[in-house]
Amino acid sequence: DVVNILCVLAVALALLCAGAVVFWHLEGMDCSQGACTERMPLIDSFYLSGMTLTTIGYGDFTPSNDASRIFMVVYSLAGLGVFSALIDVLGKWREKLP
After folding, report:
1. Which three-class secondary structure string do you get for the chain?
2. Nearest to 28 by CA among 76, 74, 61, 75
């Protein structure tokens, strides 16, 4: 049971980190003016990734280009599956507690 929980947590953490890196890559840098400037720091990318995966979605950060929007749709669907599995595993573990 603990192994299942750790496996699902590891997948959720990997998905969170991967999403943050992709959002940072797609949204983080603006090189259109010749010199690159940072639009979204990596910490904000983690925040956007977490808000997307947990379906909280405060709306304070939103995708600004088509590639980010498409990624967000796919990423949200993957997140629903992973977090549903996490809730399921934690619920089954909770039922076995005395």
Report:
1. CHHHHHHHHHHHHHHHHHHHHHHHHHHCEECCCCCCEECCCHHHHHHHHHHHHCCCCCCCCCCCCHHHHHHHHHHHHHHHHHHHHHHHHHHHHHHCCC
2. 61
42-53 and 66-95 helices, crossing angle to 10°? 60
Scan for tokens 């939103």, then name that residue: 62
Integer Cα distance of 92 and 88 in angstroms: 6
> What is the percent of the chain with per-residue pLDDT over 70, rounded to a whole number?
100
State the CB neighbour count (10 A cutoff) for residue 26: 20
What is the pLDDT at residue 56? Answer: 82
Measured distance between the N- and C-terminal CA atoms of the chain, rounded to whole angstroms: 15
Which value, in Å, is the radius of gyration of the alpha carbons in the chain? 16
Tokens of residue 6, six digits: 């750790």
